[in-house]
Specification:
The complex is a heterodimer of chains A (454) and B (91). Chain A is of the alpha/beta class. Chain A is built from 14 helices and 13 strands. Chain A has a domain of 163 residues: Anaerobic Ribonucleotide-triphosphate Reductase Large Chain, CATH 3.20.70. In chain A, the strands form 2 sheets. In chain A, strands 1, 2, 3, 4, 5, 6, 7, 8, 9, 10 and 13 form an 11-stranded mixed beta sheet that branches. Chain A has a two-stranded antiparallel ribbon with strand order 11-12. Helices cover 42% and strands 17% of the residues of chain A. With 91 residues, chain B is of the alpha+beta class. Chain B has one domain: Alpha-Beta Plaits (2-Layer Sandwich), CATH 3.30.70. Chain B has 3 helices and 4 strands, in the order βαββαβα. In chain B, a hairpin with a 2-residue loop joins strand 2 and strand 3. The longest helix of chain B is centred in the C-terminal third of the chain and has 15 residues. Classes of the chains: A alpha/beta (454), B alpha+beta (91). Chains A and B meet through helix 1, helix 3 and helix 8 of A and strand 1, strand 2, strand 3, helix 2 and strand 4 of B.
Amino acid sequence: MLDISPEEIAETVTMVTQQHLDIRTVTLGVSLTDCAAGDAASIGKRVYDRLMQAAERLVPTCESIEREFGIPIVNKRISVTPIAEIATCAGPDLTPIALAMDRAAHEIGVDFIGGFSALVQKGIGRGDQLIIDSLPSALAATERVCGSVNVASTRAGINMDAVMLMAETIKATAEATADRDGIGCAKLVVFCNMVEDNPFMAGAVHGSGEADIVVNVGISGPGVVNAVVRSLPDDADLTAVAEAIKATSFKITRAGELVAREAARRLGVTMGIVDLSLAPTPAEGDSVAEILEAIGVGRCGGPGTTTALALLNDAVKKGGAMGTSSIGGLSGAFIPVSEDMGMLRAVECGALTLEKLEAMTAVCSVGLDMIAIPGDTPAETIAAVISDACAIGVINSKTTAARLIPVPGKTVGDHVSFGGLLGHTPIMAVNGWAGTRLVRRGGRVPAPLGSLRN
Amino acid sequence: MKTKAILSVLGEDRVGIVAAISNALAEAGANIEDIRQTILSGVFSMTMLVTIDEDAESFEAVQARLATVAEEIGLQITLQREDVFRFMHRV
């Protein structure tokens, strides 16, 4: 007996065929703790062998799930143990490990592999230093490897020495990939309060609290939410808007939960988490900015944007929380400038600035994401921008991050294209009155008080 | 292995749609358990609950067979595992 109505079936089919409903990523987290060795070449060989054995069936399994369930899985990816943890005795150049990860990613058929990473919020260990020193060459020499460094946390405060070091590393990575408009920086995230189970790139890692192999799923659905909000009557009040988003988020999350369960079952590994982030793509209509405009903001970035984003982000989580008991990862709307056509239009017409994006990061997921800035932006200015994002994360006990691309030879008014999911964007202006002396002081911004929250 | 699936058909109404799809399913050893047909916003819409016998023919082979039928009669036919709809539309 058919207990699903034809209207419900048509709704699901329409979500997929017309509103870009898809699973954004199935990310296999793989522990590499047994791959430690005394030199980078040996580690690289062990990492390659481990990945080929652990992830061999990932792509065909996801493809059969896509076909049988009729829901596209846009990306299949891998996250690994932060390489700093297994490379303490190697060095000085860890690029051979990145090359091995890249080779495995190509052969397995995943578009990105994350985990060329280090956590330095309190101090920089030897392995961490090796990772940071190797990032420019590793990201230049590879196509699919992503790196991330955690420089701050609510419990440790902000490691300003690490922030400054990462700003210099971002500049060096841009120079190392200057022939491709600094694309290396699109694969490098600087985090505050990094999470251990993030399935999204470029910041995915497989944390030390995880099982050996885990399936994490990132949902999608800006297009579906956008269509639902736009279908509401003009006089629907904000409670009705939140209700509609919640109901839609439940459905999107259930699709993610089903895919996560099925992928874990078929691969014979642990199901990890479902990440409730709304992740836009450069496809027309698949935009978070357009949802904010559908809620009622004149143009994304204008007054009211932070309110609309807070409502959206919270409603997505509330609906999602009913859809899965395994919420994890970042679980907050993404607002990457180059990957969201609505954001792009808002930047081009002057409605959306770096400062507004910083405010938005206080109420959603990683806020300073895929932002191209002038190539001659001083490292101290980049460090100050990163530290502002970190301050929001540290004080509000949330993840924040910066993925900034100082595009060599380009300035405000120029345009840059990274291709594919990374999209294209104008170069954004950066406030010239940076806290240069602040970041040069170095040291640590102490961890904040947990009470007295105003 | 028996797998429940939802078959949905969308497109312009014409003679022989149900016959073509039923024949294809019968050849695949799939059983039709329920069938509903309606006109949604002027478009012919049919949904079927079917049980696929994957020992007789794999899910993907049935999908391929239906894709051929879809091309012949010029309609959109999708076959998806029933779990998707149950997960998305029922708490």
